[in-house]
Design a protein that fits this description.
The protein contains four helices and 13 strands. Strands 2, 3, 4, 8, 9, 11 and 12 form a seven-stranded antiparallel beta sheet that branches. It has a four-stranded antiparallel beta sheet with strand order 1-13-5-10, with helices on one face. Strands 6-7 form a two-stranded antiparallel ribbon. The longest helix has 20 residues. It has two domains: 44 residues, no CATH class; 274 residues, no CATH class. The chain is an alpha+beta fold. Helix 1 crosses helix 4.
Length: 320
């Protein structure tokens, strides 16, 4: 028998040492009836579902309400995940993972290097589409900015047209979109840029609750909307109208990224992203490794028990 003092020592250590996503249910947008698509306010009737890039950018040079915006624009990312056969325990956690497609995500694209303020970073704001909204049936091959669920266009390009509940009670009783929080982009140094295939993670209690409620209500899918968090008017010019690109399931082979330098202080460091040219092809189970993914991670107690299943025989063997 494993003594309690051993458990007190080993369980926290096992949980801490487990890699991110260990024993998680991983749901890419390529699984089942999942989907990923970009929509653009300056091209409101154009569908980009078959594009090999998933992008978000914003620039707003004119005052709010100005109808003729010139170069102003906004791109949003719609992500649909098939929840079939999935579950999320009470103490579990939901995470979203995207991977970079750009080869030019340098420090000035994600951090304030002008002021400079290393703590001032941009990132992605995430929203969840109400689980009972009819728009959850959107199709990748037809979705446009004009038809995307959860948006009400004001005709002013470069502004974010998220549809929330009217505080005066005159609007919908249930808000189509719920804010789930913001995931900041990681700083770049000591790298020269973020590598193609590199991970962008987001998690929050709001996201976890949103996914759990969808599962508890037997929803087949869940829709998340993501967009760059700044408003297009920030003082960092390199953020305005910059295309933050991510790999959709349609990008079956990652771009070559031979100039990536993981440590610019080491002249002997070999160049090249470890994922340069990697395959993102969908396998027979609907899995594509670099596509947008939803991770459902069990509670720490369950994770520890799974790992202890392999540890107990070792402890018994040592005592025998």
């Amino acid at each position: 028998m494993v003594r309690r003092q051993y458990l007190r020592l080993f369980v926290p250590a096992l949980v801490a040492l487990a890699p991110a996503g260990a024993f998680a249910t991983i749901i890419p947008t390529s699984f089942g009836i999942g989907a990923d698509a970009e929509v653009r306010d300056h091209q409101p009737t154009t569908n980009f579902g078959a594009s090999t890039e998933l992008a978000t950018r914003v620039v707003d040079t004119f005052p709010t309400g100005h109808a003729s915006d010139g170069s102003d624009r906004l791109s949003l990312m719609y992500l649909k995940f098939d929840l079939t056969g999935s579950s999320l325990p009470v103490d579990g956690q939901a995470r979203v993972r995207l991977t970079w497609r750009n080869t030019n995500i340098t420090a000035n694209r994600v951090q304030d290097t002008f002021t400079p303020n290393p703590d001032f970073r941009t990132g992605l704001a995430f929203y969840g589409l109400d689980r009972d909204d009819a728009g959850n049936n959107w199709a990748e091959s037809t979705i446009t900015y004009g038809t995307a669920p959860g948006l009400i266009s004001d005709g002013d390009n470069g502004t974010k047209d998220y549809a929330f509940a009217d505080p005066d009670g005159a609007g919908p009783l249930r808000a189509p979109l719920t804010s789930l929080g913001v995931g900041l982009f990681d700083p770049v140094p000591p790298q020269n840029h973020h590598p193609v295939g590199g991970e962008v993670w987001f998690t929050s209690q709001q996201l976890t609750n949103f996914i759990r409620l969808a599962l508890d209500n037997d929803k087949q899918t869940v829709t998340l909307v993501a967009a760059v968090v700044h408003d297009g008017k920030v003082p960092v010019n390199d953020w305005k109208n910059f295309n933050y690109l991510f790999n959709p399931k349609e990008q079956t082979t990652l771009l070559a990224d031979g100039s990536y330098d993981a440590d610019t202080t080491d002249p002997n460091n070999p160049l090249g992203s470890p994922w340069s040219g990697a395959s993102n092809a969908t396998d027979a189970n609907g899995f594509s490794p670099f596509s947008p993914q939803l991770h459902l991670i069990p509670e720490p107690g369950s994770l520890a028990l799974v790992m202890l299943g392999g540890l107990v025989p070792l402890l018994r063997r040592r005592r025998s």
